[in-house]
Amino acid sequence: MLYVNESGFYALVLGSKLSTAVKFKNWVTAEVF
Description:
Layout: H1 6-15, H2 19-32
């Protein structure tokens, strides 16, 4: 099993090109940051 801390999670998602990751990145950067 792989464990990723919060900063690692965001690094993986924000660097991903998958469509779901891109949608999540857009939501996070628009709503959270």
